[in-house]
Amino acid sequence: MRILVLILIFLIPITPVFSKNKSDTKKEKKILEKSLLYPGWGQIIEKEYVKGIGFVLAETTLILSAIVMNNKSNDYYDKYKIAENVDDVIFYRQKTEEFDKKRNILILSAAFVWVVNLVDIYIHVKKKRRRLKLSFEKRNEEYFCINFTYSF
Asked: Which member of 40, 54, 60, 73 has the greatest number of CB atoms within 10 A?
């Protein structure tokens, strides 16, 4: 967990910058920082509500589940420490290890969701600043246009 916090602290200052315009850069940096702090926040700001809510729900569910598993593990560990019967000692120790493994898997899953979120928002912001844009327009019933736009 400490490593994850250190990574967060070091990644905030080196958030990628995609444009030379300072106001755009600040906005993009804020979007990336918000997604860095909590998955889905940047997507919600960018009006990608389905993705954003999906990331928020996934991350929240995984974190809360990890906390529940940790509490169950601690309960079984407390019972293990005061158990007097050998069979109880073995049972409580196995349950403690079982819930520890589940907690660790949930924490890794939450980290995976966090990384996928960052990749998604990075790609979204990068696509938004594309230099070459292609658009299709239908004018009247007879004409169909393809527009190419290149920004410097």
From this structure: 40
